[in-house]
Predict the 3D structure of the following.
Amino acid sequence: MRKLSLLCVALFIFSALPSSCPAAAERTITDASGQRKTIPADISHVICSGSGCLRLLTYMQAQSMIVGVDDIETRRKRFEARPYALANPDFKKQPTFGEFRGHDNPERILALSPPPDIIFKTIASMGTNPEELAQKTGIPVIILDSGDLGEHRLAFYNALRIIGSVLGKEQRAETVISFFEKNIQQLGIRTANMSPDKKRSVFIGGVAFKGPHGFQSTEPDYPPFKFVGLRNIAYTTGINGKGLRHSDVAKEKLLEWDPNILFLDLSTLQFGKQGGGLNELKTDPAYQTLTAVQQGMVYGVLPYNGYSQNYGSILANAWFIGKMLYPEQFKDIDPAAKADAIYTFLVGKPVFEKMNAAFGNLVFSEISVR
Protein backbone atom coordinates (compact mmCIF):
# COMPACT_ATOMS: atom_id res chain seq x y z
CA MET A 1 0.00 0.00 0.00
CA ARG A 2 2.85 2.37 0.86
CA LYS A 3 4.49 1.75 -2.54
CA LEU A 4 1.16 2.31 -4.27
CA SER A 5 0.66 5.60 -2.42
CA LEU A 6 4.13 6.82 -3.39
CA LEU A 7 3.43 5.90 -7.02
CA CYS A 8 0.20 7.91 -7.00
CA VAL A 9 1.99 10.94 -5.52
CA ALA A 10 4.71 10.69 -8.17
CA LEU A 11 2.15 10.51 -10.97
CA PHE A 12 0.33 13.57 -9.59
CA ILE A 13 3.52 15.60 -9.38
CA PHE A 14 4.53 14.59 -12.93
CA SER A 15 1.15 15.55 -14.32
CA ALA A 16 1.38 18.96 -12.67
CA LEU A 17 4.72 19.77 -14.30
CA PRO A 18 4.72 22.09 -17.37
CA SER A 19 4.60 20.29 -20.68
CA SER A 20 7.87 20.05 -22.57
CA CYS A 21 5.91 21.17 -25.70
CA PRO A 22 3.80 24.14 -24.58
CA ALA A 23 0.95 25.33 -26.78
CA ALA A 24 1.78 28.30 -28.98
CA ALA A 25 0.87 31.63 -27.40
CA GLU A 26 -2.29 33.22 -28.72
CA ARG A 27 -4.24 36.46 -28.42
CA THR A 28 -7.51 37.85 -29.68
CA ILE A 29 -8.36 40.86 -31.82
CA THR A 30 -11.59 42.31 -33.20
CA ASP A 31 -11.72 42.65 -36.97
CA ALA A 32 -13.95 44.82 -39.18
CA SER A 33 -16.77 42.29 -38.96
CA GLY A 34 -16.98 42.93 -35.23
CA GLN A 35 -15.96 39.34 -34.50
CA ARG A 36 -13.27 38.35 -32.03
CA LYS A 37 -10.57 36.33 -33.77
CA THR A 38 -7.92 34.20 -32.08
CA ILE A 39 -4.53 34.67 -33.70
CA PRO A 40 -0.92 33.68 -32.90
CA ALA A 41 0.85 36.03 -30.50
CA ASP A 42 3.68 36.45 -32.99
CA ILE A 43 3.01 36.94 -36.69
CA SER A 44 5.79 36.40 -39.22
CA HIS A 45 4.04 35.55 -42.48
CA VAL A 46 0.77 36.76 -44.03
CA ILE A 47 -1.20 36.85 -47.26
CA CYS A 48 -3.60 39.54 -48.46
CA SER A 49 -6.85 38.58 -50.20
CA GLY A 50 -9.18 40.91 -52.06
CA SER A 51 -9.22 44.32 -53.71
CA GLY A 52 -6.78 46.77 -52.17
CA CYS A 53 -5.67 44.48 -49.36
CA LEU A 54 -1.99 44.36 -50.33
CA ARG A 55 -2.04 48.13 -50.81
CA LEU A 56 -2.96 48.55 -47.13
CA LEU A 57 -0.20 46.18 -46.04
CA THR A 58 2.30 48.16 -48.13
CA TYR A 59 1.21 51.42 -46.48
CA MET A 60 2.00 49.69 -43.18
CA GLN A 61 5.53 48.82 -44.42
CA ALA A 62 4.80 45.13 -43.90
CA GLN A 63 4.86 43.86 -47.49
CA SER A 64 8.02 41.82 -46.77
CA MET A 65 5.85 39.50 -44.66
CA ILE A 66 3.84 38.14 -47.60
CA VAL A 67 4.37 34.57 -48.76
CA GLY A 68 2.07 34.74 -51.79
CA VAL A 69 -0.26 37.01 -53.76
CA ASP A 70 -3.50 36.76 -55.70
CA ASP A 71 -3.08 36.48 -59.44
CA ILE A 72 -3.68 40.14 -60.32
CA GLU A 73 -0.35 41.02 -58.71
CA THR A 74 1.60 38.81 -61.14
CA ARG A 75 0.17 40.33 -64.32
CA ARG A 76 2.21 42.75 -66.39
CA LYS A 77 0.16 45.74 -67.40
CA ARG A 78 0.86 48.49 -69.86
CA PHE A 79 -1.38 50.83 -67.87
CA GLU A 80 -0.31 50.20 -64.27
CA ALA A 81 -2.38 52.47 -62.04
CA ARG A 82 -1.30 51.05 -58.68
CA PRO A 83 1.65 52.86 -57.07
CA TYR A 84 2.13 50.12 -54.46
CA ALA A 85 2.65 47.56 -57.26
CA LEU A 86 5.06 49.80 -59.18
CA ALA A 87 7.10 50.30 -56.03
CA ASN A 88 7.25 46.55 -55.39
CA PRO A 89 7.97 44.73 -58.68
CA ASP A 90 8.91 41.59 -56.72
CA PHE A 91 5.19 41.01 -56.11
CA LYS A 92 5.10 39.57 -59.64
CA LYS A 93 7.54 36.82 -58.62
CA GLN A 94 5.48 35.61 -55.68
CA PRO A 95 3.53 32.32 -55.78
CA THR A 96 -0.21 32.78 -56.26
CA PHE A 97 -2.81 31.48 -53.85
CA GLY A 98 -5.96 32.35 -55.81
CA GLU A 99 -7.67 34.66 -58.24
CA PHE A 100 -8.22 38.37 -57.80
CA ARG A 101 -11.19 39.89 -55.94
CA GLY A 102 -10.93 37.38 -53.13
CA HIS A 103 -11.37 34.09 -54.99
CA ASP A 104 -8.93 32.18 -52.82
CA ASN A 105 -7.79 28.58 -53.30
CA PRO A 106 -7.44 26.81 -49.91
CA GLU A 107 -5.23 24.07 -51.37
CA ARG A 108 -2.79 26.62 -52.78
CA ILE A 109 -2.74 28.50 -49.48
CA LEU A 110 -1.87 25.31 -47.60
CA ALA A 111 0.91 24.63 -50.10
CA LEU A 112 2.65 27.97 -49.48
CA SER A 113 6.08 27.71 -47.89
CA PRO A 114 6.40 29.10 -45.33
CA PRO A 115 2.69 29.00 -44.53
CA PRO A 116 0.90 32.21 -43.57
CA ASP A 117 0.10 32.76 -39.90
CA ILE A 118 -2.99 34.78 -40.83
CA ILE A 119 -4.99 35.87 -43.87
CA PHE A 120 -6.06 39.50 -44.26
CA LYS A 121 -9.18 39.83 -46.42
CA THR A 122 -11.04 42.85 -47.79
CA ILE A 123 -14.65 42.82 -49.10
CA ALA A 124 -15.74 39.74 -47.18
CA SER A 125 -18.85 39.35 -49.36
CA MET A 126 -16.78 38.84 -52.52
CA GLY A 127 -15.00 35.64 -53.46
CA THR A 128 -14.35 32.83 -51.01
CA ASN A 129 -16.40 33.02 -47.81
CA PRO A 130 -14.05 33.99 -44.91
CA GLU A 131 -15.48 31.43 -42.47
CA GLU A 132 -15.23 28.68 -45.05
CA LEU A 133 -11.67 29.75 -45.86
CA ALA A 134 -10.68 29.63 -42.18
CA GLN A 135 -12.27 26.20 -41.75
CA LYS A 136 -10.56 24.69 -44.80
CA THR A 137 -7.11 26.11 -44.05
CA GLY A 138 -7.08 26.29 -40.25
CA ILE A 139 -5.67 29.81 -40.62
CA PRO A 140 -7.35 32.83 -38.97
CA VAL A 141 -8.99 35.20 -41.49
CA ILE A 142 -8.93 38.87 -40.46
CA ILE A 143 -11.59 40.92 -42.26
CA LEU A 144 -10.79 44.52 -43.21
CA ASP A 145 -13.08 47.29 -44.48
CA SER A 146 -10.87 49.48 -46.67
CA GLY A 147 -13.39 52.34 -46.62
CA ASP A 148 -12.54 55.46 -48.61
CA LEU A 149 -11.37 59.05 -48.15
CA GLY A 150 -14.94 60.38 -48.08
CA GLU A 151 -17.74 59.42 -45.76
CA HIS A 152 -16.10 56.10 -44.90
CA ARG A 153 -12.70 57.51 -43.97
CA LEU A 154 -12.92 56.13 -40.43
CA ALA A 155 -13.35 52.62 -41.84
CA PHE A 156 -10.13 53.10 -43.83
CA TYR A 157 -8.33 54.27 -40.72
CA ASN A 158 -9.75 51.37 -38.71
CA ALA A 159 -8.38 48.92 -41.29
CA LEU A 160 -4.91 50.39 -40.80
CA ARG A 161 -5.29 50.13 -37.03
CA ILE A 162 -6.38 46.50 -37.23
CA ILE A 163 -3.32 45.64 -39.32
CA GLY A 164 -1.18 47.59 -36.87
CA SER A 165 -2.63 45.70 -33.91
CA VAL A 166 -2.15 42.31 -35.57
CA LEU A 167 1.42 42.98 -36.71
CA GLY A 168 2.66 45.11 -33.83
CA LYS A 169 2.82 48.20 -36.04
CA GLU A 170 0.46 50.45 -34.11
CA GLN A 171 2.76 53.47 -34.41
CA ARG A 172 2.98 53.17 -38.19
CA ALA A 173 -0.81 53.01 -38.40
CA GLU A 174 -1.14 56.28 -36.47
CA THR A 175 1.59 57.89 -38.57
CA VAL A 176 -0.19 56.99 -41.82
CA ILE A 177 -3.54 58.22 -40.50
CA SER A 178 -1.94 61.49 -39.39
CA PHE A 179 -0.35 61.86 -42.84
CA PHE A 180 -3.74 61.69 -44.57
CA GLU A 181 -5.40 63.98 -42.07
CA LYS A 182 -2.68 66.62 -42.34
CA ASN A 183 -2.80 66.60 -46.16
CA ILE A 184 -6.58 66.96 -46.17
CA GLN A 185 -6.41 69.71 -43.55
CA GLN A 186 -3.74 71.64 -45.45
CA LEU A 187 -5.75 71.46 -48.66
CA GLY A 188 -8.78 72.82 -46.84
CA ILE A 189 -6.85 75.67 -45.24
CA ARG A 190 -5.47 76.86 -48.57
CA THR A 191 -8.92 77.04 -50.17
CA ALA A 192 -11.07 77.99 -47.15
CA ASN A 193 -11.33 81.69 -48.01
CA MET A 194 -12.05 81.38 -51.71
CA SER A 195 -15.12 83.35 -52.72
CA PRO A 196 -18.03 81.42 -54.32
CA ASP A 197 -17.63 83.14 -57.68
CA LYS A 198 -14.15 81.64 -57.99
CA LYS A 199 -15.36 78.11 -57.35
CA ARG A 200 -16.13 77.10 -60.90
CA SER A 201 -18.18 74.09 -61.99
CA VAL A 202 -16.16 70.92 -62.47
CA PHE A 203 -16.67 67.35 -63.66
CA ILE A 204 -14.50 64.23 -63.52
CA GLY A 205 -15.07 61.65 -66.26
CA GLY A 206 -13.59 58.33 -67.27
CA VAL A 207 -13.43 56.99 -63.70
CA ALA A 208 -12.65 53.27 -63.55
CA PHE A 209 -14.94 50.93 -61.64
CA LYS A 210 -14.15 47.21 -61.80
CA GLY A 211 -12.38 48.00 -65.05
CA PRO A 212 -12.05 50.99 -67.41
CA HIS A 213 -15.05 53.10 -68.41
CA GLY A 214 -15.89 55.88 -70.85
CA PHE A 215 -16.24 59.60 -70.20
CA GLN A 216 -19.72 59.37 -68.67
CA SER A 217 -18.34 57.33 -65.75
CA THR A 218 -17.83 59.52 -62.70
CA GLU A 219 -17.55 59.61 -58.92
CA PRO A 220 -20.25 62.08 -57.81
CA ASP A 221 -18.67 62.67 -54.40
CA TYR A 222 -15.11 62.78 -55.79
CA PRO A 223 -12.84 63.40 -52.74
CA PRO A 224 -10.16 65.57 -54.46
CA PHE A 225 -12.86 68.12 -55.33
CA LYS A 226 -14.16 68.13 -51.77
CA PHE A 227 -10.69 68.62 -50.30
CA VAL A 228 -10.31 71.93 -52.19
CA GLY A 229 -13.85 73.16 -51.55
CA LEU A 230 -15.44 72.05 -54.83
CA ARG A 231 -18.19 69.61 -55.73
CA ASN A 232 -18.54 67.45 -58.79
CA ILE A 233 -21.37 68.92 -60.86
CA ALA A 234 -22.73 65.36 -61.05
CA TYR A 235 -23.17 65.18 -57.28
CA THR A 236 -26.60 63.98 -56.20
CA THR A 237 -27.97 62.79 -52.88
CA GLY A 238 -29.47 59.42 -52.21
CA ILE A 239 -32.51 58.64 -50.13
CA ASN A 240 -30.39 58.73 -47.00
CA GLY A 241 -28.93 62.10 -47.88
CA LYS A 242 -25.46 60.73 -48.56
CA GLY A 243 -23.55 61.22 -51.77
CA LEU A 244 -23.58 58.43 -54.32
CA ARG A 245 -20.39 56.53 -55.05
CA HIS A 246 -19.84 55.52 -58.68
CA SER A 247 -22.30 56.62 -61.36
CA ASP A 248 -22.70 56.77 -65.14
CA VAL A 249 -24.11 60.15 -66.16
CA ALA A 250 -26.37 60.58 -69.19
CA LYS A 251 -24.68 62.48 -72.00
CA GLU A 252 -27.68 64.81 -72.18
CA LYS A 253 -27.10 65.79 -68.57
CA LEU A 254 -23.45 66.56 -69.21
CA LEU A 255 -24.40 68.81 -72.10
CA GLU A 256 -27.03 70.51 -69.95
CA TRP A 257 -24.63 71.11 -67.07
CA ASP A 258 -21.83 72.30 -69.40
CA PRO A 259 -19.12 72.41 -66.67
CA ASN A 260 -16.41 75.07 -66.87
CA ILE A 261 -13.58 72.58 -66.33
CA LEU A 262 -13.30 68.90 -67.21
CA PHE A 263 -10.94 66.39 -65.63
CA LEU A 264 -10.24 63.06 -67.27
CA ASP A 265 -9.35 60.05 -65.15
CA LEU A 266 -6.63 58.53 -67.33
CA SER A 267 -7.59 54.95 -66.52
CA THR A 268 -9.96 55.36 -69.46
CA LEU A 269 -6.92 55.14 -71.80
CA GLN A 270 -6.95 51.37 -71.26
CA PHE A 271 -9.56 51.21 -74.03
CA GLY A 272 -6.91 52.25 -76.56
CA LYS A 273 -6.97 54.97 -79.19
CA GLN A 274 -10.30 53.91 -80.65
CA GLY A 275 -12.26 53.97 -77.39
CA GLY A 276 -12.55 55.45 -73.93
CA GLY A 277 -13.20 58.92 -72.64
CA LEU A 278 -10.38 60.68 -74.47
CA ASN A 279 -11.49 59.35 -77.84
CA GLU A 280 -15.10 60.31 -77.04
CA LEU A 281 -14.14 63.90 -76.22
CA LYS A 282 -12.16 64.14 -79.45
CA THR A 283 -14.68 62.56 -81.83
CA ASP A 284 -18.18 63.10 -80.43
CA PRO A 285 -19.68 66.29 -81.96
CA ALA A 286 -21.86 66.76 -78.89
CA TYR A 287 -18.88 66.84 -76.51
CA GLN A 288 -17.11 69.23 -78.86
CA THR A 289 -19.76 71.85 -78.00
CA LEU A 290 -18.87 71.83 -74.29
CA THR A 291 -17.44 75.11 -73.03
CA ALA A 292 -14.51 73.37 -71.32
CA VAL A 293 -13.57 71.61 -74.55
CA GLN A 294 -13.76 74.77 -76.65
CA GLN A 295 -11.75 76.78 -74.12
CA GLY A 296 -9.04 74.14 -73.64
CA MET A 297 -9.94 73.38 -70.04
CA VAL A 298 -9.56 69.59 -70.05
CA TYR A 299 -6.94 68.07 -67.73
CA GLY A 300 -5.63 64.58 -67.08
CA VAL A 301 -5.45 63.16 -63.56
CA LEU A 302 -4.16 59.97 -61.97
CA PRO A 303 -6.47 56.95 -61.90
CA TYR A 304 -8.83 57.03 -58.93
CA ASN A 305 -9.42 53.26 -58.85
CA GLY A 306 -6.97 50.47 -59.55
CA TYR A 307 -7.95 47.27 -57.75
CA SER A 308 -9.83 49.47 -55.27
CA GLN A 309 -9.03 53.10 -54.53
CA ASN A 310 -5.57 54.59 -54.94
CA TYR A 311 -5.55 56.69 -51.78
CA GLY A 312 -2.18 58.29 -52.47
CA SER A 313 -3.23 59.26 -55.99
CA ILE A 314 -6.41 60.78 -54.57
CA LEU A 315 -4.29 63.12 -52.45
CA ALA A 316 -1.96 63.87 -55.36
CA ASN A 317 -4.91 64.73 -57.63
CA ALA A 318 -6.28 67.09 -55.00
CA TRP A 319 -2.98 69.01 -54.85
CA PHE A 320 -2.92 69.29 -58.65
CA ILE A 321 -6.55 70.44 -58.87
CA GLY A 322 -5.90 73.02 -56.17
CA LYS A 323 -2.82 74.28 -58.02
CA MET A 324 -4.68 74.47 -61.33
CA LEU A 325 -7.74 76.28 -60.01
CA TYR A 326 -6.08 78.48 -57.39
CA PRO A 327 -2.48 79.07 -58.53
CA GLU A 328 -1.82 81.82 -55.97
CA GLN A 329 -2.83 79.62 -53.04
CA PHE A 330 -0.64 76.76 -54.34
CA LYS A 331 2.26 78.66 -55.92
CA ASP A 332 4.78 76.73 -53.81
CA ILE A 333 3.47 73.36 -55.00
CA ASP A 334 4.89 71.28 -57.84
CA PRO A 335 2.16 68.64 -58.34
CA ALA A 336 4.53 65.97 -59.69
CA ALA A 337 6.98 66.47 -56.83
CA LYS A 338 4.09 66.44 -54.37
CA ALA A 339 2.84 63.17 -55.83
CA ASP A 340 6.27 61.59 -55.41
CA ALA A 341 6.50 62.79 -51.82
CA ILE A 342 3.15 61.11 -51.15
CA TYR A 343 4.18 57.89 -52.88
CA THR A 344 7.55 57.77 -51.13
CA PHE A 345 5.86 57.97 -47.75
CA LEU A 346 3.09 55.47 -48.53
CA VAL A 347 4.74 52.86 -50.78
CA GLY A 348 8.45 53.53 -50.30
CA LYS A 349 9.43 54.89 -53.73
CA PRO A 350 8.75 57.87 -56.04
CA VAL A 351 6.77 56.32 -58.90
CA PHE A 352 5.07 59.33 -60.52
CA GLU A 353 7.24 59.32 -63.65
CA LYS A 354 6.54 55.64 -64.29
CA MET A 355 2.81 56.20 -63.98
CA ASN A 356 2.90 59.31 -66.12
CA ALA A 357 4.85 57.52 -68.85
CA ALA A 358 2.38 54.61 -68.80
CA PHE A 359 -0.50 57.03 -69.35
CA GLY A 360 1.01 58.93 -72.27
CA ASN A 361 2.57 61.72 -70.17
CA LEU A 362 -0.89 63.25 -69.81
CA VAL A 363 -1.02 63.25 -66.01
CA PHE A 364 -1.45 66.76 -64.58
CA SER A 365 -1.44 68.21 -68.09
CA GLU A 366 -3.85 70.08 -70.31
CA ILE A 367 -5.24 67.64 -72.87
CA SER A 368 -5.95 68.80 -76.39
CA VAL A 369 -9.22 67.34 -77.60
CA ARG A 370 -9.93 69.60 -80.59
